[in-house]
Amino acid sequence: MHLTNSAPPVTPRNRHLRWCVALAAGCALLFGVLAALVQTGWEPLARLDHGWIDGMHRYARESTAWTASVQTLSDIGGTITMRTLLGLTAVWLWLIGARVLAGWVVAQTLVGWGMQWLLKLSFDRQRPSFPDPVSHAGGPAFPSGHAMASTITCAVLAGLLWSQTRRGGRIAACTIAVLTVLTIGWTRIALGVHWPSDVLGGWLASGFVLGAVTIGVELWRPGALARDVRRVNWRTRPRVQRVLVSPPRPAPYDPPFDDAAERPDGATG
To answer: Higher model confidence: residue 131 or residue 146?
Structure first.
């Protein structure tokens, strides 16, 4: 009698799903803890929020040029800009035939936008208030919409570039994405329109959206995302690579001139 291992093999798709489940579950758990601390007014968190906001607001009042530059960065990385980038990416993917991948991008955009307002209206947290504010923003504070939109957009774009580049390109793409997300989140705190916990909540909520949407698409169309990624790779691969990898053709034999018979002017030596 032979004993065999009946456990199914771990495929790349299964591994990818496990990572997405871990991302969604972990971010949802951490967001729930953070939201509970925000709602109950946990004193250490409240001190941290007020300490950061008060210190940055004092500096923002004293340095108008610095404040203007921070406001510009915040405007550039706003929710409209980020969602426009995702929309253009989805259109491009649709045009090259990566329809499921395009739908995944659209779903990330729409679910992220809907989740943002659902959470904002559910918690209805007040924004920081100053008698002399340096910037204004409307709507509830928790979680930060800028933080959610920038995280989802940068993660999606970095993910699409991941399979297109080698190790150096991947490191560069991830570094730029992380720095962009951190910078945009920091500008919202520096301008006094969000508490630090609002920004952290936005990052956690966007992690849940990224994982949950990917799980939904994978269960709906198993393997379709991977096939579309391969399609994108094929469509975007530089044509010059085909020339570079092809074996060189041998040069035709060109014999030297044979005295007068081969000399172009017919003269002898």
So the answer is: 146
* Backbone phi and psi for residue 3, each to the nearest 5 degrees, phi listed first: -95, 130
What are the C-alpha distances in Å from 117 to residues 18, 113, 123, 160, 266?
Answer: 28, 7, 10, 26, 89
Is the CA virtual torsion 26, 27, 32, 38 positive or negative? Answer: positive
> Is there a contact between 215 and 17 (Cβ–Cβ < 8 Å)?
yes
Task: Give the 3-state secondary structure of residue 257.
Answer: coil
Angle (nearest 5°) at CA 43 between 38 and 49? 65
pTM above 0.85, yes or no: no
Spatial CB neighbours of 171, under 8 Å, sequence gap ≥ 6: none
Question: What token pair was written down for 52?
Answer: 């950061």
Question: What is the amino acid identity at position 34?
Answer: L
Gap between the Cα atoms of 140 and 198, Å rounded: 10
CB 191 within 8 A of CB 72: no
